[in-house]
Design goal:
The protein is mostly helical. The protein is built from 12 helices and no strands. It has helices at 3-16, 23-34, 41-58, 60-75, 83-104, 106-112, 116-136, 148-160, 168-178, 183-209, 215-246, 250-266. Helix 1 packs across helix 3 (41-58) and helix 2 (23-34) packs across helix 7.
Length: 267
């Protein structure tokens, strides 16, 4: 992979990991549409680690407060004593459905990544999710009222994002909105919920990458992808959190439909 392709990969991953338009879908469709070489899954994982760094830096204060609250709850044997402690355990529970789905359907999911038309079809699911989320948005719920059922249902929405073309951020934001949370809080929780999933996938792929015989030759491209994905990802986190305060998710739904139709026509 050339440095140019590494930059393109980093930009795609950094932007689409957090904007509700599916990073996995773009990783499949963009190379297919523009004749680029298909990115190696290990390189994609490095790009994911770049976006993970972005979300860790952006939400460093929140993450620190959650970890401190969970630790204090464990020491005092009061696991759910504060909103931040409850939030930490809800993130753990919300991660479980996607982990189970990934373990059970690993082979089938990998096969889907080789079918651009299937990916284009799954983009329409992302668009449908975003439209439904906006239609059902109410804002009656809050972090103080959040329950185990909320965490599980939002986690099930994240499970759908295992399908290439279904946006993880989009599905979990919609899951939060379906459960009555306002758009800004649903987006914030979506980013926090994504940390364990991105970390797990990135670390597993990194372990495989360390065994690659040509690792030293790949390092410049890998570092470029990592850095670009992190910088673009940080900017897009801020962009989306600013966007959802005053604007709907409908433009992202329209984009997903447009990209899906273009892909069907050209592929």
């Amino acid at each position: 992979m050339s440095i140019f392709e590494a930059i393109i990969l980093g930009i795609i991953q950094g932007a689409t990991e957090f904007l509700p338009v599916s990073s996995s879908g773009h990783m499949v469709l963009i190379p297919a549409l523009f004749g680029l070489s298909e990115p190696n899954l290990n390189v994609v994982a490095i790009a994911h680690l770049g976006t993970l760094l972005a979300v860790l830096i952006y939400f460093a204060a929140d993450i620190g407060q959650i970890i401190a609250a969970v630790w204090t709850g464990l020491r005092q044997r009061d696991l759910m004593g504060t909103p931040n402690a409850r939030l930490g355990w809800y993130i753990v529970v919300g991660t479980i459905p996607a982990v189970i789905g990934a373990l059970l359907f690993e082979a089938q999911l990998e096969e889907m990544f080789t079918d651009p038309k299937a990916v284009a079809g799954f983009l329409l699911i992302t668009a449908a999710f975003l439209i439904v989320g906006e239609y059902m948005r109410s804002g009656w719920n809050s972090i103080e009222k959040m329950s185990w059922l909320d965490a599980i249902i939002i986690g099930v929405f994240q499970l759908f994002a295992l399908l290439p073309g279904v946006s993880r951020s989009g599905s979990t934001i919609v899951g939060g909105m379906v459960r009555g949370f306002n758009r800004p809080w649903a987006a914030r929780y979506s980013f926090l919920l994504g940390i364990p999933a991105i970390l797990g996938a990135g670390l597993l792929a990194t372990l495989d990458l360390l065994q690659a015989p040509n690792l030293s030759a790949m390092l410049p491209a890998l570092f470029t992808t990592f850095a670009v994905a992190g910088i673009v990802g940080y900017a897009c986190i801020h962009l989306l959190l600013t966007w959802v305060r005053q604007r709907s998710l409908y433009p992202f739904a329209i984009y997903c439909v447009a990209l899906s139709l273009i892909s069907f026509i050209l592929l």
